[in-house]
Design goal:
The protein is α+β, with helices and mostly antiparallel strands. Helix content is 45%, strand content 24%. Strands 1, 2, 3, 4 and 5 form a five-stranded antiparallel β-sheet that branches. Helix 4 packs across helix 5.
């Protein structure tokens, strides 16, 4: 029998209230010093994960993050009891540091979507309007050729500069409510910003209100806010590679 893992909490006391996890299995914790790993058992012959399992996982995590400081692990984290204890032993110092740093903090996700192709088309039009000679050349030599030249030497540069300005505006508007952040710009043409913000409890209301005001800003942008979640994207390890290799890359 293997164990399915939900996360590590800042308590070594048995869970007071009954809690069920994947496939209705009882959830309990494996203590180590002043922390513990929250787990449930899972049949080794039935490890295939479904959307139902994802929902069950998320429900357990939601309850745990309200009761404890939780360091969540990835969905589908399955290993044995010896591995669980080994992780807590080998990375205890990092775990304690993360728990202390992330106590009373929650993660929010922000996505900003724009029409990348329309932005590039506008850049092309602006360049042609500001450079009539280029417009004439595009008509005589073929607009497609000129657009390719712009794409290689001008459009991409202006596109990224415009993206940087837009991301800075969004980030400056929200950052006064956050303690840490991770920004991913232009993961593709249309995903302008994929951001993760760490917000102290008590400041969530201000963060959400600022986001609602941000949505009223002019421009053809679509804003998506998700959370609060436990801090998946803010757990830090002194030796990330060793941590990945331990416990089948669950942390």
């Amino acid at each position: 029998m293997k164990i399915y893992t939900y996360g590590i909490i800042d308590s070594n006391i048995s869970l007071e209230e009954p809690l069920t996890g994947l496939n209705g299995a009882p959830v309990h914790n494996i203590p180590y010093r002043d922390i513990s790993m929250v787990i449930s058992t899972i049949d080794e012959n039935n490890e295939e994960m479904t959307n139902t399992h994802a929902i069950e996982h998320h429900k357990v995590v939601e309850i745990l993050m309200k009761r404890f400081t939780l360091l969540p692990v990835k969905f589908r984290s399955i290993f044995n009891k010896d591995q669980a204890i080994s992780i807590m032993e080998n990375f205890y110092s990092d775990i304690r540091d993360n728990i202390d740093r992330l106590r009373n903090k929650e993660e929010f996700g922000i996505k900003v979507i724009w029409s990348g192709e329309k932005i590039k088309e506008q850049i092309i039009r602006d360049q042609c309007r500001n450079n009539p000679v280029l417009l004439e050349e595009s008509e005589s030599q073929g607009r497609r050729f000129i657009e390719e030249v712009f794409k290689d030497y001008v459009i991409d540069k202006e596109f990224r500069e415009k993206a940087d300005i837009c991301v800075a505006i969004v980030d400056n508007f929200l950052c006064k409510y956050v303690t840490e952040k991770r920004l991913e710009k232009l993961k593709n043409n249309d995903l302008l910003l994929n951001a993760f913000y760490l917000v102290e409890r008590g400041k969530e209301k201000g963060f959400k209100e600022a986001f609602e005001v941000l949505k009223l800003a002019p421009g053809n942008f679509r804003y998506i806010c998700s959370g609060p979640y436990p801090p998946y994207n803010f757990i830090k390890w002194s030796d990330p590679e060793a941590c990945k290799q331990s416990g089948e890359k669950v942390l």
